[in-house]
What does this fold into?
Amino acid sequence: MRYLVIVLSLFLAVAMPACANGQRPGNVSVGIGINVPVFPHLVLVPGYPVYYDPAIGLNYFFYDGLYWVFISDSWYASSWYNGPWGLVEQYRVPLYILRVPVRYYRQPPPYFRGWHADAPPRWDERWGRDWERQHSEPDQWSRHRAPEPAPVPDYQRKYSGERYPRDDERQRIIRSENYRYQPREPIAQERFRQQGKSRSRESSERGPERR
It folds into this structure.
């Protein structure tokens, strides 16, 4: 019954990708209709620097310090296991995520049907020639030159239910105190940096502290 809440919440998933106020995807927190009530059991995909949870009924991964979810034909990322989630444009999703074989998608979309379980999804067929041209260089991805997997952020295990931090600032503070990993992918660096800017902006708006 561990993931009952997750299974039920899938029926509430949004039918269309969400984005707010026309802002740049990845910097906007959106609701995507899922709930991961406890810290996931992350296992490495064999041969890849990407983790997944074999027991969770979602296309749910962890790579380079971020959690990744593929739902409603869109990718979302978060630095915490239950969001808030930011929409990521298909051109910016790291290739090591996109190369994970079909069999590790726990809720594959219908168009995956017939694709080889041990091969990556055919994103070029789904996303078209423009995407394919930007991702066709052989040196952009190599399984044999894959980076070391990022350490699992086990500190988040202590935060569930009412203890789970919902706002970016609280998440940033807890992460900075417990997780020293520096991401290598531009989208992960941007996500971490965005949380830092939020902290700086709030401090400047408050002005200097009075002693």
Q: What stands out?
A: Helices lie at 4-10, 95-98, 123-134, 168-178, 186-206.
